[in-house]
Amino acid sequence: MAKEIKELTSRDENYSQWYNDLVIKADLAENSAVRGCMVVKPYGYAIWEKIQRQLDDMFKETGHVNAYFPLFIPKSFFSKEANHVEGFAKECAVVTHYRLKNDPRGKGVVVDPDARLEEELIVRPTSETIIWNTYRGWIQSHRDLPVLVNQWANVVRWEMRTRLFLRTAEFLWQEGHTAHATREEAIEETVKMLNVYACFAEQYMAIPVLKGVKTASERFAGAEDTYCIEALMQDGKALQAGTSHFLGQNFAKAFDVQFLNREGQREYVWATSWGVSTRLMGALIMSHSDNNGLVLPPKLAPYQVVIIPVYKDDAGLAVLNERVAVLSNELKALGISVKYDNSLNKKPGWKFAEYELKGVPVRLAMGARDLENGTIEVARRDTLTKETVPVDGIALHVKALLEDIQRNIYRKALDYRAAKTITVDSYDAFKEKIETGGFLLAHWDGTPETEERIKAETKATIRCIPLDGDLTPGVDMVTGKPSKQRVVFARAY
Question: Which residues in the chain are classed under CATH 3.30.110.30?
């Protein structure tokens, strides 16, 4: 295992390769035989399940319910909302035939040319169109509103340059789609779900985020406004960690979804959509991990504690097994997830390195001397520190330690973001500072031309117009034109 860790590229030497190495070596995911797609391995999927379970609980607490809609969408549906089809046209995978047949030349199978579909089907890149076509049959009156639906699904967006978790042709996500009687109610929903995402990112993922609104050029295709949370990775690049869209009445008009309001008049429904994906796995890795491997926040770790016995013979292991069984039950009684690794095929030193690489928050080690002295060794992953403490009361000690680790990981990320958030007033200063990464707060004149020029010349984009930013007016650093407030620039994934 020591050799495995030595082969982990240094984060400072090559951040991109460090990330790729870590995803593979920590057993999170691997590339599949299908170009651009990934296999999420059991340990990686266990983290995703924790993310999914917690978010699902938060959605249901805010009144949402889960449903499922088809993977395939008729091509004609995409023609009904012009901005939407333009935004996704280049990423769509298209099904044209429904049958294979044996190759008459004896070379496997071929597509049966007689089995062409009358209308091609798009493999779901997002579900607004199929869902709003369905909502037309669900919504007739104001009594049918609001509709608060979420689905957990996979989507396909045909990517040529892929990267595990961050950008793959197929990925897992959730997408909420809600329908409302008024504009105000829909906007309230959009902001509410943005706050749910921000709360989850900070309290569970231990990642501080900025909440804001996207510019028109960065807006979701078919939305009137896109709200987002933006996180800063350890290489100084931004990552969009979640989005919530106010769709106005665009999709209701496209699919003729009307309702009879309280005054007996017909009007179009107001809509939102919102989603996060397995991209959060990439955010989790890049926000906290180090050259020794993953660093996982306890709230999302597949198991929060691993216990490793140190023994000389089978008799010694048997005694340890009995004592650890009692200890495990004490930890589990406090809601702590535990793995006891008494496997015989690996030495304790190997196990120490393996679980350090996998980011398990707390490691407990117990040997014959510990049994005699009534002690146990406790190692915390975030600081790589160890201590030997009395085994009596260890469950409460570990519970407090896990809470401290969660806070410490967040505090470290917050301090990093604060150090890498810089206010700039001149374009020369901007071009200099953007090379070292981070969030740059600068004035922008609000025009797409200036936004595009900055992007072309510096590779930096406006990550968001912050919701709680400095509203002091100023002048654009490029054009000198008036600016209403500072916006957040960064290079991004």
Answer: 421-490
